[in-house]
Structures are given as structure tokens and as C-alpha cells.
């Protein structure tokens, strides 16, 4: 499991860096976020929830049934829209209330 950051979409806010529990995200010389050691990514998706621009994509590997699909998050008001894109072009959007998303 790992993430990929699109530097063209990154606005250098640093929110993803602040929430990464593994301290794997850094800023490059242009202030854009990047992942230091992709293989060490825990797959917690904390950075996805912070990046409302969809600059971070999470790769859903074969080990969890994703077969190379990707997932990213955008925000629409108080809703988080989890967008899944499969390799064959299928897209699914799962909407959750951002105020309720982290309640246990």
C-alpha cells in the first residue's frame, strides 16, 4: 500500500505532512509534498482526508482486492467524497459526513 502525490495539484499547504503518523511526507525545494519512503506507508489514509484537492492518491493493491485501483478524497461542503478509480476506468464515489467520519 502506498500513496502518490501529484505535485501539479499540490498547493504546498503542508496539512498532509502534519498528519502523517510515520513522518514519511516532506516538502521538496518548491514546497510541494512528497513521500520519502513509499514502501513504508502504513495505509492509514490520514493524508488523503487532509488533501481536499485530490493531489494525493492511495493505491489499492492486489493484496486488498484493488488490483491497482486508486482512491483519493475531495470535499464538498461538510461531505468527504472518497473517489475510487479502477484500472479499467470504472469510478465509484462514496460520500461521508466529515463531521462524523472519525467518530468511534
Polypeptide structure, described:
- By secondary structure, the protein is mainly β.
- The chain has two helices and seven strands.
- The longest helix is centred in the N-terminal third of the chain and has 5 residues, at 15-19.
What are the defining features of this structure?
104 residues; five-stranded antiparallel β-sheet; two-stranded antiparallel sheet; 2 helices; 10% helix
In short:
The protein is mainly beta and 104 residues long. It contains 2 helices and 7 strands, in the order βαββαββββ.
Strand order of the largest sheet: 1-4-5-6-7
Determine Rg (CA atoms, Å).
Answer: 13 Å
What is the average of the pLDDT values?
A: 85
| Percent of residues in beta strands | 35-45%
- Category from helices, strands and their pairing: mainly beta
User: How large is the count of helical segments?
Assistant: 2
Report helical residue fraction.
under 10%
What is the chain-wise order of helices and strands?
Answer: EHEEHEEEE
Largest beta-sheet characterization: 5 strands, antiparallel
Task: List low-pLDDT spans.
Answer: none
The counted number of beta strands is 7
The 3D shape can be described as globular
Span of the ends, CA to CA: 24 Å
How is this fold's topology laid out?
Blueprint: E1 2-5, H1 15-19, E2 25-27, E3 33-35, H2 46-50, E4 56-60, E5 69-76, E6 79-85, E7 91-97
